[in-house]
Amino acid sequence: FVTKEEQQFEKMKVMQILSITVVAVVVLPAVTGFSNSASRKAFVGRQQQKQQRQQLASSTLSSSSTSLMDTEGDAIDFASKQSIEALLSSSFGGKKITIDEAKTTNGMPWTHSIDEELGDDALLYMPFWTWQMDFMEKSLTNLRAQPCSSEDVDFTFNENKDKKARIVNACFASDEYRKIRMTYYDAGDKTQVFNSVWYPNPKYNLPILGVDLLSFNRKKYLAIVDFQPLHQKEENHAATFEDKLKPIKEKYDSLKGQMSSKFYDETQFFSKQMLFARFEDENVVDNELLPAFQEYVGAHLNLLKETTPEPSDAQAVMARQQEYDTYSAERDPATAFFAAMFGNDWADSFVYDFLFSMSERKEKEGDAAAAPHMGGPPPGVRQHGNPGAPAATQGAAAAATAAAPQRA
Q1: Pairing of strands 165-173, 144-146
Q2: pLDDT for 66-112, tens place per residue?
Q3: Rounded CA separation 188/178 (Å)
């Protein structure tokens, strides 16, 4: 919970930063027109944000960069600018959400399925949701709820009463993580899904935590939990992590499977210690999957706490996370799944504006395709070994969502 004093202090810091920057580059065009809602949207809108992110991702932190400069000539990193935009959006009309409101949105945590004929055990993965909420509140610093929306779509909740399906989303941030999103999809016994992705604060050049758990007809189950690397080589991160995961994985025999390469290249975009399982015995969920999930989440936070932050790396790490989102959105097989349930427009926006909100849409057919990013990390990221490969994908969540129904 953020106190009024803390909010005021953050606002004062932002105004101090703005007062010593070349405000005309980013802020002035929007601030001068904030009384006009169209002007405000133009400033905090999706297209301008993405243009800024794309421009910043390709720039460096050198003195010749077009980045905003402070009075001492130091580049203001991408993460700081993102924080400024977020606070300005909140201060000038953005919807503020408390932790309690986020926890209880749309009746969460649900106790019964949308299919009223089912018993109170139908929501198979709700204990994962409630445990994660409790863990975040107890373990994260300055936890705060974030809106689950784009310019014109609120993704907090959607339902199809005719098909007896509903989805709820929540989004958070903390000092350790710039974004933590959570999704629960309930379609009775037909489908149960819990998905969560944890993006570290970009001052940590560390993997993204991806979680995707699915159940189909209470007969087929699929689970993926992984530290999804930003670089192909582990040593290119600020700290190694697979040695910390291996002892955990060794304890859970049912979670040592190997995913197919139908949607993603698991040799490049997933760690060797990924928890992966296809199973038909539902007891695995409580006996192995839940404790393994809890241990991986705890290990990820511990990894951040044990790693020395490098603020100068933030802009380049954000570029990696953007590549991660773009790769994932382009390959996400869940789009068709959600389109059939909630409509094409909502599904497309859900994938690009919420699940992978930093992603860039492909150019229209006939346009020149953008050249893929090749080679090592973008300029500015410290090398912890040999140059890395392209950024990783969130893949765990998306690959499981639609791939599993085809196998069920």
Answers
A1: antiparallel
A2: 333 333 333 344 445 454 444 434 333 346 889 999 999 999 999 99
A3: 33
User: Angle between the 37-44 and 78-91 helix axes, to the nearest 10 degrees?
Assistant: 160
Are the C-beta atoms of 126 and 175 separated by less than 8 Å? Answer: no
Is residue 196 a contact partner of residue 211, using CB atoms and an 8 Å limit? Answer: yes
Which residue in 391, 378, 380 sits closest to 329, CA to CA? 391
Q: Are 344 and 313 in contact (CB under 8 A)?
A: no
Q: Which ranges of 92-121 does DSSP label H, i.e. alpha helix?
A: 99-103
Nearest to 157 by CA among 129, 183, 133: 183
Cα torsion 345, 269, 47, 81: sign = positive
Place of tokens 């065009």: 29
Least confident of 116-120, 154-158, 174-178, 259-263: 259-263
Q: CA–CA separation, 178 vs 195, rounded Å?
A: 17
Tokens 């209880």 correspond to what residue? Answer: 104
**Run of H or E residues at 131:** helix 126-139
Q: Six-digit token pair at 161?
A: 């009463």
